[in-house]
Amino acid sequence: MGKNYDNWERLVKAVSRREEDKLLALTHSVSTSPFDRKDWKVMLPPGKRQVVWRSSYMSFSLDERTEKNCFLLGAMNLIMSSRGFGGCWKLNTHPQSRFTEVVEFEKSQGIYIEGNIKTKLLSSESCYTAYLVFGFAEMYANLNSAVSIVRNFYNESGIGYPEEQAKMVKFQEGNDRDDGWMEIQLGEFYVDEGGNGEVQVQLLDTSGYIKSGLILEGIEFRPF
């Protein structure tokens, strides 16, 4: 901890400055269990970012380079569906996960993943990238490509014409992370000063091939 904070006073100030962000994030978390205050301890994971707090389904950290807000929405904080066989995804534990549960997609003809975050949780006047954080099971099949869509709504209602960015992503071209997972870029967006909107991120694979073995840790929003 001393490597990142000179003393306890500096740590308290850093946490206090983001008390409002913490409360807002917990309001939108789907976790029904109370937040454990022992999680306020500053932990140093293998990654390069300082974890300030985490709940069962969400992690908030400070980017080491910019000191701006980072959020990782855990798999159970996302909207997911699959089509094909019944029971196409299951909950599981994973030794490298920061959350209590991850999602593993099994036999499925299609995958749909959606994550949403309020822009007031992020740092204003900043450019962000959304990343899919994932891994492969020992046995996986037909995890090739998918379409990602990032929509930036400038009001909380989600009504109107958002800025939209779509791209093709390939699972096999994911980059290794220091925390043991992989990541692929889903898209970029900008947070205005005093932004009070919402960003929606979608990942869609409707190739029709039977696919399995995708392990989902979550979607991360990180400044660049």
Automatic annotation (TrEMBL):
Any single Pfam family the record assigns to this protein: PP2
Its recorded name reads F-box protein PP2-B5-like
